[in-house]
C-alpha cells in the first residue's frame, strides 16, 4: 500500500489522507471554539499584596483569570508568579481584619467562592502559613543558610520600616542614604521580632536589647516564679521570662508584648502613648528591683548597670575638698553645650566635657570650711566605679528658649566600637581623694574603700547633675558599720579606689575597655518618632536590626550611619538640615573573657525554664489549632423573629463541616428559643435583611455541610440567615430561588383603613392575572374586582391593570410592597389619580406624627379663652392646669377632627376637574381656614377677635409705641430670670431651621422604610416617612404660597393684616391629647398631631390656633432637636417635609414676624473687658428702616430690660462676625438697601465716650493697642479714625496719640479673632512688625474694613531682661490668661502622660478624673 506523510510527519495509508485532514480540521475548529468560549467567559481580576516581608509589602501581583478557575489553580498561579513553593503560604481576603484564608485544595471556582467578575478588583493578601514565611521556589530545602552567604552579596537593612496594621509612631521616617533590605525570615537570622501594639516601638527596642544581653537573660532564666506567692498576670519578671523564652524558641516571625504591658498595669490607651526609651529603662529597672527583693536577683540591676562617681568641690587656696558619692545607671552626654554654636564631635569629647571641672570665682565663690571665707574653688565630677554594662545616653532632646519649643539635635556624634575609659580617670585626684577619705573616716577592719562608695544608693543622690558640696566628708563610722557587707568587695563593676594608687596606675588597659553591642536609634523629631535597635550578637559578632516585627542583618557601615548629622561642617544650623535618624542610647559591655557570659542553650535551661518552654510550645500548638478552626469557621449574621422578644440579631459561628441540622440546633440555642418553640418548629433559611427578603429554604439538605450551603468560608457574605419559626399546627412554606416576596396591604375604602401587611411569594414571570389569583387565595378578596397598586418608591404609585404583563415588566424586585382593594364602589370608574384609593394612599405616605408642647397661658388670655370656649359651646371647664383641662382639650379635638374630616370628604367628592377659582369659592371653608373649629356662628369669631385685641394691647403696653421691639410675653415677665446662656441657646434659630427646610423643600427626596401602623382619626395608618410625596393633581404647578414674591428670603409670609396667603389644597391635620406613654412632657400641655407633611408652616400654625388660644400671628413655633436645643421655624411658606415621626415642637407666645421683619440679637461690644462680647436683647428690625430708627426703638427696650440708659448720639451699631467687630453702621443707612440683613441676624452695640466721629463710608475705624517691651505690658484699646487707607496717616495719628517719634514708631496687624490676644513673651518677635507697604489694603495687612486690630511700639525701647525664674513665672501667668480667654498658647509644651509601671496591677482610678 502506498504511504504518504501526514502533517505530523508520520506515514499513513494514502486512502487515509482524506480522513486525517478532516480530523485535523475538526481539531482546529474545536481549539478555536475553546478560545472563543474562553474569551467570552467572565474574568476575575485578582490583586494580591504580599505582606510576608517589608520588601514586598508595597508590591502588587495582578492576575486576570477566567471565572471558572479553581482555588487550587489560583494558588498554583500565585506561587508561580510570586516565586514561592505552593503550599507554603496562605491567601486571605484583604478587605477584612480577620482575613480567613482560602482553601488550598478546593476545586470550587472563583465565581462560587465570592470573587466578583467583570473588571471589579478582588483584593487578596499573601500571608505566612502557620507563622512561617513562604519558601522560595529556587531553594529546594525551603530554608536558607545565611552563614554561608557573603556579607557583600546580602542586601542590608537599617532604619524604620512600614509596619502592617500598626500606627507605631507619629510618622514613618526614612533617609535616602540608608540601605533598606528585604526582611530575613527567622530561619535565616535566628531571631524573632516583637509586634508593635500601636506606639510601643520604644518598649520593643529595650526588650530586644535586654534579651540580647547574656548576663541579664541568664540571670532572668535562673529566677524561678512561685505561682503560690503572686499572680502570674501581674508578675513583671515572669512575663519577661515568658517573653524571652518565646523570643528564643518560637517559630513565629514576631510575637506580642501585650502580656508584658499588662503586667506593667497598662491598659490599651498606654499603647498609644510614646515615651522616652531611657525613661522606660529607669522605670523598668526600678520595678524589677522591687519585684526581686529578697531573692538572688535582688542586686542584679546594680551589679550589671550601676556605677559610682564623686561630686566634689575643692578649694584652690588650701586644697580642702568636700564631696559626696552618687550612683548612676547611665551617663547623660550633652550633644551641644548650652549657648554654643558647635556640637561635640564624638562620645569621647562629650565624656571629657562631662568630667571637666568648672571654676567657681567672682560672685560664685565657694565658702571654704577650712579657710572660713569665700574662696575660688573647682567643682566637678569624677568617675570612681564603672559598671559592667555601661549605658550612655546622648541628650538629643533640648528646649529652644527662642521659640519656646522642644527640639531635637540631629548633630553628628561618633562613637567607637571599643571605648577605652581609662583617660577619664584623674589618677592624682584619686590619690588625693583616697588620702582625704582615710584621714576623715574610720574604717572597720578588713574594709576596703569600695565599701565606702557602695553606701550611697539613696534615690536622692542617684543623679549626675551638679549638686554642690552638700555632704562634706559625709562618711561616718556608725553608718558604715551598719551597711557593710562581706560581699561588697566582690563587685561586678570596676572598683577604681579599692587599691593603692600604684596598683591603679599599673592596671592593664584591657580592664577599662568596653565593646559596643547595642545602639538604640530614634528617627523623627521632638514631637514624636520611631525607635528601633541595632544589636550585635555575642554568638557570632553579627549586627542585626531589630525593628519591631522585622529582624535583619546589617553591617558596620549601617551603624556608622546612625552617627547623625550631615557631611558638611558642624555649624549652628547644621542640625536643621541633618538626618533625623540617629543614635540615642549606647550600651557597652566590659571586655573581660573571664567574666563575659554566653547565651544559655536550650539544653542548658534550668528545669523550670524547660517546663515553661514545654508549656509555651503546647500553648502555641493550641493557638495554631484554634487558628485552624477559625479559618474553617463560617461567621454569618443570624436573625430570628422571636415570639416574645420580636426581631433578634446575632452572629452564627459554625464550622464548615457542620451540617445544616447541627447549625439549626446551634442557632436555636443562640436565640434562646428553648421552652418557647420546639426545635422541630424551627429552620434556617437564606435571608436578605436589607430588602427583608427570604431568598430560599433548604428542604432535603439537612445533612449538607454548611460550607457547601454558604459557598465556603468567607470574610463576609452577601446574604444572611433567618431562623424561621412556626406553630406546631402550621407547615413551613418552601422558598424557591427566583421567587420574590410581596407585602400585601389590604385597603378598605369604607372605613378608610389600611391593614397590616401579609407576605406573599410570587415569580417574576407570573402575569398580573396570576398574581391577583395568588393574592385572592391569601386574602379572600375577589380577583375580578381587585385593584393592585405597586409602590415602587414613595413618589411612585403604579396601578397594575394590564392582565398579561409580567411582574418583572412592572418593576418587581426581591422585596415589594403592594396595596390591594376589592369593592363594588364606583371608585373603580374614575381615573386612578382622581380616585379615593389614590388619595388614601397619597395621604398614607405623607402623614407624620408630631408631639406639640403648648405654652403656659397668662391670666388675661386664659379668661378670654374660657369665654371663647363657653360661647362656642365647646366646654364649660376652664383651660388651666387642673384635671378639667384635659376634658376641655378633648372636647375641642373631637369637634375639630369631625369638622376636618367632613371638609376633607367634601374636597375629595368635588374631584380635580373644577377650576382653581371654583375650588377657591366652593372650598373656602378649608382653603382659607383660620381654625378647625371655625363656624358661621359670629360668637366664635367675636371671641377670637376679642382675645387677639386683648393680647395685642398687652404687647403694646409692654413694648411701648415701638413696633419693632420684641413683644414676647415670656421675655416681658421673665426678662431678668432668663440667663444669657438660655438666650444664647436660641442663636441662629431661624437660619438653621430655614436651611433644614430649604434643603428638603423639594418633593423628590429620599424614601425611608415605614414603621408600624398608627390609627388616625379617619382610620388611616400613619408611618414614618421623612420625604414628601408630590400630589398628581398639583404636579408641575406652582402653589400660591411658593410665588417668587413671597419666597424673597424674609422671615415672614404674612400679608398686611397678619393673615397667611391662601392655601391651594386642604392637607390632613388631626390632633389628640398626649398620653403619658407618648412623651416625657407633661401630658396636660402636650398634643399628638397627625399631619400631612406637605402642609406649610403657615397652615400648620392656623390649625393649631384653637389649641394655643391665640391667632397664629401671636405665637411662635420652635423645633426641638435631640440635644434639647430649640430653633425657631419662621419661614411660613416652607413645608414640614424635613420633620419625621415623633419630632417635638414647642409653642411659645409672642408676636410672630410680619413680612419684611427680621429677628436680631444685640450684643454689647466691650473692647477693654476680659469678655468683649455680651448679649443684651432680642429685637426686631424691619426692611426699609434706617439705622437711627432702629436705635430709637432699641434704646427703650435696653432701658427696660437691661437697665441701660443711653443717649442715641453716644451709641453706634456695627457688624458682628462671630466675635469680630466689623463695619460701623451710619445713622442714614437703610436695612436691605445699604445693609444686608438675614434671619437671626447679630449686631454689635458699642457705647461711645464722645459723639460719633464716623460720618462717611470712606473713613476707616481701627482699634489700636500699644506694646511696651520695657514693662512687658499691653496698653488698652484706643480707636483711630482714618480718612484714607494710608499707612503714613495711621503712623502719624499713632505718633500724635502716643508721643512716640514718627521715625521710631513701628506697627503690626493682630492675628486671629478679636481681641487678637497674644502672649507678651511672643509679641515682640512673632508679629510682622513694620511691614514695607504704603497702604493698609494690600498684603500682608489687608485692612479693608472697620474693626481691625493694630499693635504699635517704640523701636528704641529695649525688652525687659528676665531671669529664668521670672520668665517661667510670666509664662505661667500668660498661659493661664490666654487659656481663660480661649486663645491657643503656642508655646505650651505638649502634655505627655507620665510613664509609670504599676506594681499592684494597675493605676488607682480617680472618680473625679474624666
UniProtKB/TrEMBL annotation:
Domain of life: Eukaryota
GO molecular function: cysteine-type deubiquitinase activity
Polar residues composition-biased segments: 135-151, 931-942
Originating organism: Lates calcarifer (Barramundi)
Keyword field: Hydrolase
Region described as Disordered: spans on this chain: 131-170, 459-479, 902-942, 958-1058
Biased composition (Basic and acidic residues): 969-985
Compositional bias per record (Acidic residues), positions renumbered to this chain: 1042-1055
InterPro entries reported for this sequence: Papain-like_cys_pep_sf, Peptidase_C19, Peptidase_C19_UCH, Ubiquitin-like_dom, Ubiquitin-like_domsf, USP, USP47_C, USP_CS
Keyword Secreted: no
The keyword Hydrolase is annotated on this UniProt entry: yes
Gene Ontology BP terms: protein deubiquitination
Source lineage: Eukaryota, Metazoa, Chordata, Craniata, Vertebrata
Primary gene name: usp47
Record-level GO cellular component terms: cytosol; nucleus
Domain USP: 192-591
Comp. bias intervals (Low complexity): 902-923, 958-967, 988-1004
Family annotation (SUPFAM superfamilies): Cysteine proteinases (SSF54001), Ubiquitin-like (SSF54236)
One of the Pfam families matching this protein, by short name: Ubiquitin_2
Protein known as: Ubiquitin carboxyl-terminal hydrolase 47
